[in-house]
């Protein structure tokens, strides 16, 4: 059981909309990797892929029973919407946003931070691997 988990996530679509994938890495407070996954999610938009990656990561993080969570994403839109700087207007994003809010509710402390793309390379690689594998059959 980790006291605090840190999630790095990414989602992307080639073409926007286009073939899309998600990727995330979950670390404990000591920086040890607890989980990582890349997944092809079909044909959708970048923003749907970003939110889907977060939902997938939060679903997985529940198993670590942490009391605190930190989320790191290079999606300015997702970060600003979750921090309530931007409203969620897109009908496709509203249910995903609500699911994220529900999954974050049990945590005592939640940090959501925008990071530069260069600090999110591993999650981006997971996204691209998932898309590549799906497109190659």
From TrEMBL:
It comes from Candidatus Hakubella thermalkaliphila. This is Ribonuclease HI. Residues 1-132 form the RNase H type-1 domain. The lineage of its organism: Bacteria, Bacillati, Actinomycetota, Actinomycetota incertae sedis, Candidatus Hakubellales. Pfam families: RVT_3 (PF13456). GO terms for molecular function: nucleic acid binding; RNA-DNA hybrid ribonuclease activity. InterPro entries: RNaseH-like_sf (IPR012337), RNaseH_domain (IPR002156), RNaseH_sf (IPR036397).
């Amino acid at each position: 059981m980790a006291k605090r988990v840190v999630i790095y996530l990414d989602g992307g679509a080639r073409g926007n909309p286009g073939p899309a994938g998600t990727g995330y890495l979950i670390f404990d407070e000591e920086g040890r990797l607890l989980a990582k996954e890349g997944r092809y999610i079909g044909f959708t938009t970048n923003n749907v892929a970003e939110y889907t990656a977060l939902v997938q990561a939060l679903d997985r993080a529940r198993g670590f029973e942490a009391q605190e969570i930190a989320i790191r994403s290079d999606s300015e839109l997702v970060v600003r919407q979750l921090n309530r700087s931007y409203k969620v207007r897109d009908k496709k994003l509203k249910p995903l946003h609500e699911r994220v809010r529900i999954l974050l509710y049990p945590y005592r402390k939640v940090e959501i931070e925008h990071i530069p793309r260069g600090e999110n390379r591993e999650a981006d690689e997971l996204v691209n691997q998932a898309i590549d594998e799906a497109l190659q059959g």
